Amino acid sequence: MRKKYYPLLITACLFVLLFWISVSVPKQTIENLIGSAGIFAPLVYIFLILLTFIIAPLSGSPIVFAGFYIFGHKVVFLNLVASTISTVVNFWVARIWGRNLVRKFVGENNINRIDELARNYGLTVLIVLRIFQGSIHDFVSFAAGLTEIKFWPYFIISVLVSIPGTLLWYLVALQVDTPVQFIILIWVIALSFSLIFVLGRRVLKGKAN
């Protein structure tokens, strides 16, 4: 095997390993892992959730579940830190290494969604996507890296737009008491904003036609 294929092989093996871990490791194990880190527990949580933002097929639900159990409602702000880091990492992964590497992180099916986002990209679109499509913010970041948008306007907008949503998420999260309720809340909020986004697109397309 040629040496140039070694990095691809290592990436593929790491991808498979992380995906297997995300779907097979019990929540209790994740809780023990994070909790055993002591004062470094927030950093461990941020790192684990960051992996799910960068490698799209990884499931973040077990980690968020454990995070709420350990940190309570403050886990919302830890997620904000992780998502901000992934905003930078995903952008530069796409900008430096291009579409082929992004495909390895997100999978063949998801790369088509990223291509569609990249074709329609702009600062206005970025603002709308950050507000209403937070559930695919990792895809949005990858898509931005595949366009000619400059990093600093992209980064500043991404951070500023995420602040009101995070505060709203935190205030709403204060109304729940258990990790299960918190996970359900995340899904409900994500689906609600996605529905608004989809309906808005249809209305605008209807007016354009």
Can you offer a commentary on this structure?
With 209 residues, this protein is an all-alpha fold. The protein has one domain. It is 81% helix and 0% strand. It has helices spanning 6-24, 27-35, 41-54, 61-71, 75-106, 108-119, 123-132, 137-145, 151-173, 179-208.
Attribute tags:
209 residues, transmembrane helix, 10 helices, 81% helix, disordered N terminus, mainly alpha, single chain, cell membrane, VTT_dom
Quick overview:
With 209 residues, the chain is mainly alpha-helical.
Structural class by sheet pairing and helices: mainly alpha
Q: How many separate structural domains?
A: 1
Tell me how many strands there are.
0
Radius of gyration: 18 Å
Give the termini separation: 54 Å
Mean pLDDT across all residues, rounded? Answer: 76
Assign a percent range to the helix content: over 70%
What kind of sheet is the major sheet? none
Q: Give the H and E element order.
A: HHHHHHHHHH
Low-confidence stretches: 3-8
Shape, principal axes of CA atoms = globular
Contiguous helical run count: 10
Q: Hey, roughly how much beta strand do the residues contain?
A: under 5%
Produce the secondary structure layout.
Layout: H1 6-24, H2 27-35, H3 41-54, H4 61-71, H5 75-106, H6 108-119, H7 123-132, H8 137-145, H9 151-173, H10 179-208
Helix pairs in contact: 2-4, 3-4, 3-5, 4-10, 5-6, 5-8, 5-9, 6-8, 7-9, 7-10
